[in-house]
């Protein structure tokens, strides 16, 4: 529920002129009033998805990050995540993986694979740093959620280099054991597949050395324990585990996923040497020999997902990334029936998503680092209303008032009188008229003028004087003036201009009849329809705001107007308003405020229309 | 040092040699102008330039400009303090290594602070500073001594006289202490980024051995207050 409301507030707060839907605006504001939704939540909607089950990921989630709970991460990936990603998880205190096309493609294959047929073997290729390991991890998460048994070899290159101890294998004379690597792998395998190890039973009796043995029908966990306890026989334990899993998955008791990262290590060269300094080739290593049997496509009931990797590979140039270059002929033939999956660099959309995620997690700390090329959600805090303006303004249409400051302790344009006196200054008047004439001459047929001004500061005086000026110069044309007051406090301070965004939307809707080309109405007709008692000015006050504040606003304004009629409305009276009309309007205002008090009539009301 | 008269016009520049050999000097003729790296200045339209800027522009049309050194950068992310620190860390001219150590240090600081930030409860989040540049500058500022000691020999004895320090000297001392502390007084197998980030974070909070060193220097200066009149500059 919270999510949908957040989505609603996100949508309606965009400045969509011409889609002024007061109902949506009202719903938006009431939801904002009810739950303090901070504006920082908005980017999450675009870059994140709350769908944490990989099985439900589809094209709509592409480019978005999904969350893996930290406990799940520890169980699923005791090894296998790239180092940088582990650091990121540590720093951000959460694990977010991006959903990308290669992973979605793989899910498609895995879903459609038939158990009776030989194992599907997709293989991820791509250049360095494109995300092959992360794609593999995403697939592993998917499979483990689906209940598959995951055999994850994080980096096959670790088995063919930097081995301190090489023992001669007791099982086969020519082969060599690697106790440390094997026991490390067994430990991690145990963490990620505990429940399976209890259920799967061995099919035959295994002898470890002269005295120890594992009987038939014992859980596979015992074999793993044996390998961990007696490190000498760890490699053989690994071999046994692999063999058992391969045989039993064919029977269909469970589905097996063999995920090997850097599979090109299995066919190539090693940097290991025997005691007589002769080089060791990969097939002489027990671990590699057994793994080669697993990766071969002669069993069914599961899938083999592998990636090729140049980083960490031995005796391969750094520019090599194609399968033939990395695997060599022998490897390529051994892995022969396979499905290639290309993993490429981030597309612009994925880049934006990642960028947004980093911004949101405050990873990009430099103040100049926040300026995204494609436009980011996190704008610097706007100071002026024109920061929100999508319309490009012509420089000739702007006139900057230099005599007063925009904000500060003193020197601001605050009083009605100040605004009036500003326009009595001849240079100011001249400049204003210049600009006005420029645009008036451009028009084919001038309908009228629309004056929008603030009521709470000196711009009210400016607005009043400007209206007078326009009335004098262009007496035949209609003039619609709108007075604007600041929003009440229940809309939070950070959403300063959001209420005005809603107002702007409403204004656009109301003024649509005379603005659109297709409609025949003109501004004068519109003004006439509002001023139903002839050429009089009728201050009909309201604002599009949440209900609680409206009553106070209206009653307050009512009292204010009654208390000081002359000072505020001096220009109204000079323009020809009569006292009793004004009193009538005040009465209407009072009844309107009472309406809101009693709670009925909660539809939006007109903005102040002061038309001559 | 009066510079010898030069032919100012670009075509007739002779190789300039000063009358007196200086210790730190440049082979450039004094008429050469410094390169202007600030991009924003060039993007300003002609009307907005002040008088001096207009003069500078006109001067550039006639005067030659010095070659820009490789350390001068127009990047938004370049910081003179950080460049100075990197140069001080550099050994044997290996700027690549020094710079990578510097970036790794900044990254480590950021990671440590972000980890703290993301694990902290909501009300404490504002108090945690995550920007490594801010932390770096503030830490070095905290390490700067205000007053230093100078050896003055009077009547056969050498006294430690408290003397005010110039800004450059303060900055230099802060950076020097930071680097020597990290090089010498830490376990030999820890990496420099790790050591530096730790020290910078401590100095940011006004703790740690470098702040202590600064305080001892201040105390010594305070204790030797009596000799202050020995200073004649």
Automatic annotation (TrEMBL), chain A:
* Domain of life of the organism encoding this protein: Eukaryota
Ranges for the DML1/Misato tubulin domain?
Answer: 383-487
Quick check: keyword Ribonucleoprotein in the entry? yes
Q: Which Pfam families match?
A: DAP3, Tubulin_3
Q: Which UniProt keywords apply?
A: Cytoplasm, Mitochondrion, Ribonucleoprotein, Ribosomal protein, Transit peptide
Q: Where in the cell is it found?
A: Cytoplasm; Mitochondrion
Q: Which Gene3D superfamilies match?
A: Tubulin/FtsZ, GTPase domain
Entry GO terms, CC: ribosome
What family does the database annotate? Belongs to the mitochondrion-specific ribosomal protein mS29 family.
* Protein name per Swiss-Prot or TrEMBL: Small ribosomal subunit protein mS29
Q: Does the keyword Transit peptide apply?
A: yes
Q: What InterPro entries does the record tag this protein with?
A: DML1/Misato_tubulin, Ribosomal_mS29, Ribosomal_mS29_met, Tubulin/FtsZ_GTPase_sf
Query: Quick one: where is this thing mainly located?
Result: cytoplasm
UniProtKB/TrEMBL annotation, chain B:
Q: Which InterPro entries match?
A: Ribosomal_uS7, Ribosomal_uS7_dom, Ribosomal_uS7_dom_sf
> Where does the record place the Small ribosomal subunit protein uS7 domain?
68-225
The organism's place on the tree of life at top rank: Eukaryota
Gene Ontology cellular-component terms for this entry are: ribosome
Q: Which keywords does this chain's UniProt record carry?
A: Ribonucleoprotein, Ribosomal protein
For this protein, the record's PANTHER family field holds: RIBOSOMAL PROTEIN S7
Family listed: Belongs to the universal ribosomal protein uS7 family.
Q: What is this protein called?
A: 28S ribosomal protein S7, mitochondrial
> Which organism is the protein's source?
Willisornis vidua
Upper lineage: Eukaryota, Metazoa, Chordata, Craniata, Vertebrata
